[in-house]
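[step 3/7] inverse_fold.run input=structure_tokens len=370
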């Protein structure tokens, strides 16, 4: 039974959750679809309680752009949220002038934890405190005295832990109470800006649902691609969009014959293009040149796809196979590539069946010359 409950919960998302407001009424979080959410467990007698002022300032600044802060008082950490929700709300409005929604008191850990927090913790576990800062050291020392392995668990560690939810319901980030509000604000700004949000949320997708992308969407996405900048407006590329499922299946059979062992090791293998149902093939002049412009085109395509709920992956391996294997020539023939052009890369595209985490980026490689 417990396993069934966990499986059921894992299939849910934030918009499937229901909570009680500060007067006991039931609220569906689906009411917040399309908003950027910052969900926080709070307390009125905590050393972090002054964060209410920062949260209200953030809310006042970005509410008009689509930010909602959802406040869930919790008395599980040092008994620092005593009283009724009515008393808590009165305290917060009187002392911090809060305007964001405040919900009924809940538990965020243990047998009585609210399903919302079970789901949130399942999406983003504890990533540690910043031990270079005094507040992070203090929290680490306090919690480690109680439990030497506290950092290996996803539980909420203290009051004012925050979760950032994107407009499409993904948990973007988890912030411990010591995290700076300036850092949170930067992430909120990125999520509120649709272009920046698409850039920051795009991942290389390697698992797709067996659902072809609608022709109209492919047309829109490719139009975004060909509107990318190109030197002297030369547009030194051609594009071929593959919607023929049989063509993909037929060339995959050739690939499987030539790479039987590798295919056998991949239990999720469906086709040679990272399992995508559609392909966007980009070609550049055979004599060379045009690679930069083609790269700009491809980036536009992938970001446009991301903004429409689609996943992409830029592929080079299948291109090398297609160009080097005579048995795959029929695929290239169907693309009808002019003799003076050559297949440069392929973008796999489809409805994503995975949500991989972002890989670390090295910000130290950036220098600002002032």
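[step 3/7] decode complete -> sequence:
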């Amino acid at each position: 039974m417990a396993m069934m409950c966990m499986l059921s919960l894992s299939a849910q998302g934030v918009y499937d959750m229901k909570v009680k407001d500060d007067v006991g009424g039931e609220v569906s979080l689906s009411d917040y679809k399309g908003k950027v959410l910052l969900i926080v467990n709070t307390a009125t007698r905590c050393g972090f309680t002054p964060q209410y002022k920062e949260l209200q300032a953030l809310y006042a600044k970005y509410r008009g752009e689509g930010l909602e802060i959802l406040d869930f008082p919790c008395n599980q950490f040092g008994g620092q949220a005593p009283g009724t929700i009515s008393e808590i709300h009165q305290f917060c409005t009187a002392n911090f002038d809060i305007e964001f929604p405040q919900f009924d008191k809940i538990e965020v850990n243990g047998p009585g934890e609210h399903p919302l927090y079970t789901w949130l913790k399942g999406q983003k576990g504890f990533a540690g405190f910043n031990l270079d800062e005094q507040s992070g050291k203090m929290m680490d020392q306090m919690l480690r005295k109680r439990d030497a392995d506290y950092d290996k668990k996803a539980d909420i560690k203290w009051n004012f832990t925050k979760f950032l939810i994107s407009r499409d319901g993904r948990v973007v980030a988890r912030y411990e109470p010591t995290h700076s509000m300036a850092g949170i604000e930067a992430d909120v700004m990125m999520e509120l800006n649709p272009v920046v949000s698409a850039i920051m949320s795009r991942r290389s997708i390697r698992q797709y649902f067996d659902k072809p992308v609608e022709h109209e969407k492919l047309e829109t996405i490719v139009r975004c691609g060909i509107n990318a900048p190109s030197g002297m407006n030369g547009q030194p590329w051609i594009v071929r969009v593959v919607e023929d499922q049989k063509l993909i299946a037929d060339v995959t059979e050739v690939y499987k014959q030539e790479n039987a062992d590798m295919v056998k090791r991949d239990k999720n293998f469906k086709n040679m293009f990272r399992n995508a149902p559609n392909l966007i093939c980009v070609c550049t002049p055979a004599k060379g040149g045009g690679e930069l412009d083609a790269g700009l085109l491809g980036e536009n395509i992938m970001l446009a796809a991301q903004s429409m709920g689609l996943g992409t992956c830029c592929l080079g391996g299948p291109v090398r196979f297609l160009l080097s294997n005579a048995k795959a020539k029929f695929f290239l023939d169907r693309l009808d590539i002019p003799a003076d052009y050559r297949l440069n890369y392929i973008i796999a595209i489809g409805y994503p069946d995975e949500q991989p985490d972002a890989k670390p980026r090295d910000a130290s490689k950036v220098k600002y010359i002032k």
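[step 4/7] annotate
The mean pLDDT is 94.
The radius of gyration is 25 Å.
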